[in-house]
Every structure is written in C-alpha cells, then in structure tokens.
Amino acid sequence: MKIVILKFGGTSVGSIERIKNVAKIINAYHKKRYKLIVVSSAMSGVTNDLISKSKQISDNFSSSEYDVLVSTGEQVACSLIAARLIHLGLKSRSWLSWQIPIMTTSLHKNAKINAIYKRKILNYLKKGGIPIVTGFQGVNENERVTTIGRGGSDASAIMLAKFFKAERCVIYTDVEGVYTTDPNKLKKAKKIKVISYEEMLEMASLGAKVMQPVSIQDARLNRIDIEVKSTFTKKSGTLITKRSNIINNKIITGISLTQNDSKISLIGVKDKPGVAASIFKPLSKNLVNVDMVVQNISANGKETDLTFTIKTEDLNKTKKIIQSNKNIKFRKLILKKNVSKISVIGVGMITTPGVTFRMFQTLANKKINIQVISTSEIKISVLIDKRDTKKALIALHKEFKLHNKR
Amino acid sequence: MKIVILKFGGTSVGSIERIKNVAKIINAYHKKRYKLIVVSSAMSGVTNDLISKSKQISDNFSSSEYDVLVSTGEQVACSLIAARLIHLGLKSRSWLSWQIPIMTTSLHKNAKINAIYKRKILNYLKKGGIPIVTGFQGVNENERVTTIGRGGSDASAIMLAKFFKAERCVIYTDVEGVYTTDPNKLKKAKKIKVISYEEMLEMASLGAKVMQPVSIQDARLNRIDIEVKSTFTKKSGTLITKRSNIINNKIITGISLTQNDSKISLIGVKDKPGVAASIFKPLSKNLVNVDMVVQNISANGKETDLTFTIKTEDLNKTKKIIQSNKNIKFRKLILKKNVSKISVIGVGMITTPGVTFRMFQTLANKKINIQVISTSEIKISVLIDKRDTKKALIALHKEFKLHNKR
Fold first, then answer.
1. Residue A343 burial (CB count, 10 A)
2. From CA B392, how far away is CA B352, in angstroms rounded?
C-alpha cells in the first residue's frame, strides 16, 4: 500500500474557510488514488489562547494538565476536517492519539514518539477511509496525554511516515518552500526545488522557519522524502530528500544569515587539554548557546586565543560567567557586539574546489573584513560586521548564481 | 469509602476567576475529609462556539465528529480545574472519559452511560487524589467519543454517584436552588429546602431550569440525594431526596406554570375503544407534544367530548393533522389560544384531604374560570385563561402558605 502523509499547519487550518480549502486539497490527492494519512495542527491562535488561560490559572501550571489542555486544539481541527470530508462524500474520521495509539515517552510537554500502532489505521485505509490524525501529541505508558516538544505536528507527520513506510510526507504550511535566502532580506531570493536533508539542516534559521531541525533529522535518518508547500497557492514547493536523489546540483544551494550576534575573544588562554571544556561547561549549564568556535594555533605552544559567538542577549550573562569563574584563566577578554554570521551552504562544494576562495574573494572585492571563519563539509560561515550583511548577501547571492531560476 | 460527587455547570466554570472559585469550593470539601469526585461541564459559551463552527463546516455535520468536537470543551475545563487544585497544593488530575473509562451506548450525540469502570478512580481516591472527570461524554464500544444527550453533565454526575455509591451528589449551578414558583414571576417565591424526587419531576418547567427530568429520574431510581446550590453564594441550596427523608411536609411544595398553551376540543367523538389512540397517534408521529388530556363522561353512551392542550406553536400543525386525517371523526372542532396551566405540587396532598377544594375555592374567590382539570397523586393542574395567570399564582401561593420561610 503506497501511503502519502499530508500534514497541515496551524495557519493552513486557521479558519473555517481554510479548513474547507484543506478538504479540497485532500480530496484532490484522494482522487489520484493515494492512500492518505492526514495530520493536523491546531487552528492558529487556539493553542496560544489555551496557553494564556493556563498562565492565568497558575504561573507554574502542571505540565501533565498542560498537555490535556493544549491537545484539545488538534482534536477540534481534526474533527472539523474529517466532518468536512464526510460532507464532501468521502469516508473519513478523526483519530485521536489514544485511539491509534501513538505512544510517546512519558515526559510531559516534551515527549518523543516512540511507537505508532499500525493495525487500526491500516484496516481503516483498506476500507477506503481517510484518517485525520491529531498532530503534536500522543499518550504515554500511564495512558496520559502528552504533547511532543520541538517539531510539534511536523514530528508527528515524520513519525507516521516512518512507521507506515510512507512514500512521501507533504508538509502544508504558509510559506511556499525553502528559499536561497530570506526573501524579506533579498528580493532576488528564489525558491529551491530540491534540497538535501544535510543542506536543510545547515540552513539553520533559514530552514527552521519551514521546519524544525529535529524533524528534518528524523526524516533524514528514515530516508523520508518531504515536500514543503503552501496551502494558499497551487505552486510546487521544495522537496527535501537524500543527496543521491539530487541531480544537477548547484554548487551552492542557499545562503543563511544570523544577526544580533556577539563575539567573545579570550586572549592568552593556557593551551592544554580541558581548557575549552572548562570555559564552555558553565555557559552550557547557564543555557548560553555558543555558535561559532575558533581556536587559533598556539604560537609558542603554551598559550592560545579562543573566539566564539553567542546571541547578543546573552552577552552580559556570558561576561559575568567568565569573569566570576576562577577555573577560566586568560590574559585579556575582548567583547564585540554587532557581528553577523553569513553562511553559504551546498552539497556541491564537496566536489567543487575553490568555493572557499570564491567566497573570500567576493567579500574582499566588496572590502568586507572577515573576522572569523568556520567551515563544515557543506557549509562555509564567516563572521562579519553587521553593517556589511546586506552588501555581503547581495554579492554572494550573485556570485553563486542563486538569482537564476532553479 | 464515603464519596461525594461535586458537579459544576458551565456558568460555574465560565471564566478563569470562576474556575479559581470552584477550586476553592472543592478545597473546602477536601478539608472536611470528603472523598471527592468532581465532574465539570465546559466553560459557558465554549460549546456554543464549537457548535457554530460545526454548522459552518456542514449543515449535516457528522454526529460522530460532532462528539469529538464538542467533548473538547469539558476537557479544557477539567484540565484548568485540576491544574488550579495542584497550584493550591492538592493532589488532583483530570480524568478523560476514555481513561476511566465511562462506557456509553453507541448512539452519537445522544448516548447513555451504561457502565463506569471504578478501579482506576478508586485507586486514585485511595492515594488522596481528587479526580476531575469530564462530564457530558463517554466512549462507546468502538472506542469512539460519544456525548450524552439530555441531562448532559448532570447525568454524568448522577451516574458517577450511582456506580461509586456516593453519599451525595452536589450540583453546583447558577441558581440557588428550587423555588416554590418562578421568582421572575412572583417576587415572594421562596427557596425550597427539601423536595422529593417525585415533586421535582412534577415541577416540570420549574424544576427543569435546575435539572433535566431524566437526571432526576435516574437519581430517584438509584436513591441518590442531590443537593442543588449556587457557586456564587455560600447559601444552602435545595436537597432533592426520597419522600421518607422529608419530615414536616408542607401540603404544597411548589406551584408551576406553563404559558403559550392552546386548548383543542373535539366535540361529538364516537365513544368507543381506540378513538383516543386514533387521534393522538398522528400527533405523536408529527412530534406534537400533547400535555393535558381530558375526556368527558359520555352522556348518551355513544358520543364524548375530548379536550387536550398543546404548545401554541404547534396549533396550526395540529389543526391540519386533525382535519386531514379521515380516521378522526367528530362533529365540531374548537380551538382556543392563550390558555395557561397552573399546577400545585406536593406530596403532602396525599395525606391531606381537601387540597383540590381549597384550590378551586381560591380561584373561584378571584372569579377565575377553570377550563380543564387534571390531577395526579401529588399534583393538581388547572387550565385557565392566560390573563388570569398572575392573579391565580399570587392567590394560590398565599393560600398554601408558600410565602412563609421554609
């Protein structure tokens, strides 16, 4: 049985009219004789309203009751979608997590799906039914309602695709797909037709607007093709798939940006094992997210300079942690706000030499100073002055021919 | 284990502030060392909002999905109550129907509870927990969510009281209890402290504002004491109990009214078996609710006059049914709008002769003409002109000393 998972996000089911539209989309797939499993988020705004109620009840609202509370949002959306399909003459019904069941770990508000029982849903599919499954939730071994953390309903869709060995998982959302860079920052940004999981993961903020990294990673591990598209247009979206499915790679697939970063340099740190750990352990404990880390080669073999970036909002906290921790020894501390990380991402760079050089040359031509460099197999990131971000983005987007139709 | 059921209606949990108040009420019972099972309705307005959504999706909304949809209302209320109790330092949790489970018949939108599994709740009570149970719903043998029809959450509370052999079932609502007559129609109406199930059932509209007859009947059959009281005051309410628990009965407990009635008289009907049936069968089929029925003694043994009352809104329909049905033979049809039924109810009349006479004399003194009389063991109803209703109500309320403190 070839199964397709269709997942609809909160804005896609954000009103009665939109739910009717979603029913039309489902009907169109049904007419193409796909076996469908539909997953829905809560209607947009509903979850926030429920969370607001919870905050008024208690500033320390029970996490198990929180899950009971917010899980009603998806239940409402699923019943409305199913009823609309029935109205259109199709066989459909809502399937609540406990009815399937979708089993999760026990941790409330942040559970993980660890099993989906297939028997009832498969029977229902065989009878020609279209199951509408509540996203974002499950039940734990104590038969209590859980909600899953990051990734939400996307994670539900990916796990359904995994357990039912679905041919494809279509994520309907309010954006048309993944772009070469943020269209709000560069009008010439183009929608990417096909992208590998790895590139998508490296896209960081750019990709995260479309899908949480945790869900992309789950899809990658289970080799599930994901199609991201908009409920509001009929245009094709972006296919996220394994590298080997992608022919005619561009060298660079996209350019991502981070802003509001700060750079911290520790000058004259002892160059011996365990030093980096002694610095980053207290930061991690205090939930400071460290991004780029660069350690220079020690000239004299005794001392080294360590540079890393954090979000500017964490700057004061970080400063205090470093200065108050006596295990961290250094000669000088340099803090710099208003830096920006710009990254070019593409699996094409693995087989194409000279990408790093082209990137650096492009920035040099624009007289943009590179403060820190960090590279991975499919990504090159540089830290630059925040003022230069736009100039750098335009130049790199052009250099790597991302303006062109893809 | 002595168990008390506390049921809160929609207005009682109609806002966050009210839910906090409900938590205080529960806490007060808890401090008195009662073992509590709490049942809640949805926050007022929520169910109507969900129903409105369903109507926008389809004018023939699937009844099974309707139940999935509206049952979320109680789930939200229960999670908020439980979380508030946890906030106050108590052990509490929501119990959804499928978690207990509360089993119902399979008919959606109008299911009946036929079993409540006790094991999990009893274990939870033994551990000192306060279970907050979703009213108005259950699951059927197909593991689908059902909602129960008339009586709603009251019926849930009564059935919980039955299965757990509760000592008492307290119905918290937005009225202070049952009154001798409608306080909106007569300011001197007094709250009744104790009333029997049978009187409560005979109170019809008067009682129905407080509780659906079907729930009272269930309570009567299972000998469950019901206390009806308001969440908004600390005043005692009305206890509904078996007759033998009531000492010092007043002769008359209350006076109920119906308005917008019409009277239909069929003059010269053949006086033979099956005639009444031939008239009422087509009315019943057409959902016309017949209230008082009086058949006069036949003078000549061949013909009789038949009079009955219906709601005025059904008058035209009834007229057509009678005139178009050739099985119904009569000489003359008399229709009269603007009649009103006034009933005095009280178990005291069983042992006190002369109540009928006192009622008729009181009305005669006020020159009020009685058009139809109908009596039961504990109720005397008369049909009068609608214009005389208020006058009759005042006179009877005074005659039977209902003005006095009870």
1. 24
2. 22
Chain-chain contact of B76 with A72 (C-beta, under 8 angstroms): yes
Q: Report the pLDDT value the prediction gives residue B250, as an integer from 0 to 100.
A: 78
pLDDT digits (tens, 9 = 90+) for A333-357: 999 999 999 999 998 888 888 899 9
Q: List the single residue in B66, B83, B145 with the smallest CB-CB distance to A61.
A: B83
Q: What whole-number distance in Å separates Cα of residue B6 and Cα of residue B355?
A: 38
A42, B53 contact by CB (below 8 A): no
What residue of A is the nearest CA neighbor of B20?
Answer: A57
Q: In this structure, are strands B130-134 and B35-40 parallel, antiparallel, or unpaired?
A: parallel
* Residue in A50, A54, A83 closest to B65 by CB: A83
Quote the Cα angle for A99-A100-A101, to 5°. 90
Q: Which of B54, B57, B65 is nearest to A88 (CA)?
A: B57
Q: Where are the domains of chain A?
A: 3-174
pLDDT at B131 (0 to 100) = 98
Among A217-221, B200-204, B381-385, B391-395, which stretch is predicted with the lowest mean pLDDT? B200-204
Q: Is A367 left (phi over 0), alpha (psi -120 to 50) or beta?
A: left
Say whether pTM exceeds 0.95.
no
DSSP state of B150: T
CB-CB: which of A64, A87, A93 is closest to B58?
A87
State how far residue B46 is from chain A, nearest Cα, in angstroms. 12
The interface predicted TM-score of the complex, written ipTM, equals: 0.85
Relative to beta strand A303-311, strand A293-295 is: antiparallel
Nearest CA of chain A to the CA of B85: how many Å?
10
For residue A44, what are the CA distances in angstroms to A40, A193, B56?
A: 11, 27, 18
**pLDDT tens digit string along B256-301?**
998 889 999 998 888 777 777 888 888 888 888 888 888 876 667 7
Q: Which residue type sits at B175?
A: V
* Residue A360 host element (H or E): helix A355-365
Dig out the tokens for B103 from the structure: 């089993």
CATH code at A3-174 = 3.40.1160.10
**Token pair 């359904």 in the structure block, residue:** A160
So what's the pLDDT on residue B299?
A: 67
| B66–A79 C-beta distance less than 8 A | yes
Q: Tell me A99's DSSP state.
A: G
Q: Is domain B254-399 given the CATH code 3.30.450.370 in the classification?
A: no
| Residue contact A58–B83, C-beta within 8 A | yes
Taking only the tens place, the pLDDT of each residue in B124-176 is 999 999 999 999 999 999 999 999 986 789 999 999 999 999 999 999 998 89
List average pLDDT for each run of 10 residues in chain A, which is 406 residues long.
94 97 97 96 95 97 98 98 98 98 96 96 98 98 92 92 96 92 90 92 74 89 95 94 80 89 90 80 88 78 86 93 86 92 89 88 93 88 94 94 75
Cα distance between residue A162 and residue A179, in whole Å: 26
Q: For strands A379-385 and A332-345, give the pairing.
A: antiparallel
How far is residue A70's CA from residue A380's CA, in Å, rounded to a whole number? 40
Element of type H or E holding A402: none
Dig out the tokens for A154 from the structure: 């996307």
